[in-house]
Amino acid sequence: MHDLTLDAVYEAQTLIRPILHRTPVFTSRYLSERTGAEVYLKAELFQKTGSFKPRGAINKLKHFSSEEKARGIVSVSAGNHAQAVAFAAAMERIPCTVVMPTTAPANKLEATRNYGATVVLHDDLRTIFDRTEEVRKEKNAILLHPFNDPHVIAGQGTVGLEIYEDIPEADVVIVGIGGGALISGIAFVLKSLKPSIRIIGVEPEGAPTMTEALKEGKPVRLEKIATIADGLAAPIVGDWNLAFAQRYVNEIVLVPDSDIQEAVKILLQRAKLFVEPAGAAGTAALISGRIRDVRGKKVVLVLSGGNLSFDVLKKVLSAEC
Fold this sequence. Notes:
Helix content: 40-55%
CATH class of the largest domain: Alpha Beta
Oligomer: single chain
């Protein structure tokens, strides 16, 4: 069931290349000196819509039939996937509705609407997928799942291809985990091309979705989610994503919000990169010393998004880390 081929990821790369950016890689002298590693920053915050998400959304829609396009799509997201789906659907002229939590940052809600999607708000993250299915049935639309889908995983896996092409000597790649599509795609690609590479996943302590799934051997719906990193606040991982993590991910690290906030500040001050909390989780894990055996290694941090609202930024800047 959980088979994915490198050919599918290369096909996704071909499909998205005319539309999306190949995001840059930066080095950081400060982070390298602080950690003893040779640190590279894969800057997905410079992708269209401000995150890696359009890679998977566009790849998925490129595989839709004309009948599926006519029916339209429904999806669910705290913000970055919502923007990506709205952007991709507008480009393909596909009707699009996204269910978003009432707690979603205002900038992400506004951007999703501006891209042309209809937004349905729901007040409980634990039941937001159930509400999404209700909306899908009402509209007789196609569900574009934000993470539990092979075309979405293949699209996100193009980040892994770019890392391999730009930094083939990388020893460790650190990726934040929300629903799990990004780490699924990156881990599959990099482990397939370079089996010795270490893939480290990072989750907020207040949203340990993959950690719990690995512990139980099946996806587990979290009863409580509390983190500043809204992009990593999925209530459950998909079975596809769990299977990829079990097979290709070396370790999952949990970080407190205080460390994530410090990482946002450091990336802004030292690297001049406006990274949202979800995109800074990997940096938080590295600088806090929670990832072992990195001294002298080439370490890639995937900065997954830059849709940082001013409200969240004010909270981060005022926090004592």
